[in-house]
Recover the amino acids of this structure.
């Protein structure tokens, strides 16, 4: 090899080995392969050579050229990787003590009231259960003593899915699963079933100040030996007084639901108008808050519990209604409005 070319190659290799950044490599590319680079300049020496020498010299220079280009490309690739890794590692860990850079978020009023009810019921020994929003016809109706074509189905204009399942139209749809989950402990160990299960429900409603197609309920059940209506009244009154921090006026009216016998409507006096009548209470002064009753024997049976031995109560608290009462929200549609101006005003107590 021509000694000059050999020397240049050694010098080039040494400098590439020393380069520690991709910027260094780019500088080397210009210095060796650029228009005035030392390898490019070698070509100028061709003119003083014999045709024989020219041929081998030209080949050697070209080989050096491609060697240099390849080495630069390969080293650039390696350094790029290292640089990216270095950059990633230099990002400081998330600092939990940093003050927030944006406005803090807030809980939806339904979440606040739901959690409050959960705390109260937990303190009374109830388990809090979660249940899916898509359920079967059996869970939502059949297991609740509402067979196909029963007129009670007309009360709940239900959204059916193409696969025959449906969006749960009431939280009662979880009752059957809850009984099945806890019945062994009840039957074998005498542990009463005490559970609440809040959830989002869907019905094809024409919306107005007190109706929405998406709303929240909180169902609760208690099953044991000798459970009576007094137990039901006690738990409901305790819970509502805790939520509103005062002794509320309540009334029980007979109500029909196929899954309870007897069934009731528990109303509370409208806190918005104080009982005088307003659009939120349909001008009656009362707000239907909590249908309830003693669990129908057929429903217990469907859950694997012997109604001869056990009784229980169930209630379906209108959580969305309760929120409206508690915060004096006049129009139910505000709750699903997504308006932060409205929804960020509520704080936990
Ligand atoms: N699931 C009923 C509804 O949404 C409400 C209801 C009534 C629930 C009576 C109950 C109950 O647990 O006992 O219309």
């Amino acid at each position: 090899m021509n000694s000059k070319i050999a020397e240049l190659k050694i010098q080039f290799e040494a400098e590439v080995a020393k380069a520690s950044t991709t910027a260094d490599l780019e500088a080397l590319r210009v210095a060796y392969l650029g228009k005035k680079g030392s390898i490019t300049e070698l070509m100028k020496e061709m003119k003083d050579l014999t045709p024989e020498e020219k041929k081998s010299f030209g080949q050697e220079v070209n080989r050096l050229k491609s060697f240099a280009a390849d080495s630069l490309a390969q080293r650039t690739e390696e350094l790029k990787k290292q640089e990216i890794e270095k950059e990633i590692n230099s990002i400081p860990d998330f600092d939990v003590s940093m003050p927030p850079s944006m406005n803090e978020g807030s809980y939806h009023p339904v979440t606040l009231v739901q959690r409050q009810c959960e705390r109260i019921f937990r303190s009374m020994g109830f388990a809090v259960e979660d249940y899916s929003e898509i359920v079967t016809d059996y869970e939502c109706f059949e297991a609740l003593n509402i067979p196909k074509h029963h007129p009670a189905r007309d009360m709940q204009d239900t959204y059916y899915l193409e696969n025959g399942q449906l969006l749960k139209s009431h939280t009662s749809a979880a009752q059957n699963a809850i009984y099945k989950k806890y019945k062994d402990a009840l039957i074998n160990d005498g542990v009463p079933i005490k559970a609440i299960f809040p959830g989002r429900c869907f019905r094809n409603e024409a919306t107005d100040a007190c109706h929405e197609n998406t709303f929240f309920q909180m169902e609760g059940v208690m099953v044991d030996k000798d459970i009576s209506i007094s137990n039901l009244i006690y738990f409901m009154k305790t819970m509502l007084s805790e939520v509103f921090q005062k002794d509320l006026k309540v009334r029980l009216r007979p109500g029909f639901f196929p899954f309870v016998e007897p069934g009731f409507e528990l109303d509370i006096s409208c806190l918005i108008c104080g009982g005088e009548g307003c659009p939120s209470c349909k001008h009656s002064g009362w707000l239907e808050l909590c249908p309830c009753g003693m669990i129908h024997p057929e429903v217990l049976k469907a859950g694997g519990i012997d109604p001869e031995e056990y009784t229980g109560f169930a209630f379906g608290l209108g959580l969305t209604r309760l929120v409206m009462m508690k915060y004096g929200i006049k129009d139910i549609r505000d709750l699903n409005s997504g308006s932060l101006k409205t929804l960020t005003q509520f704080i936990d107590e």
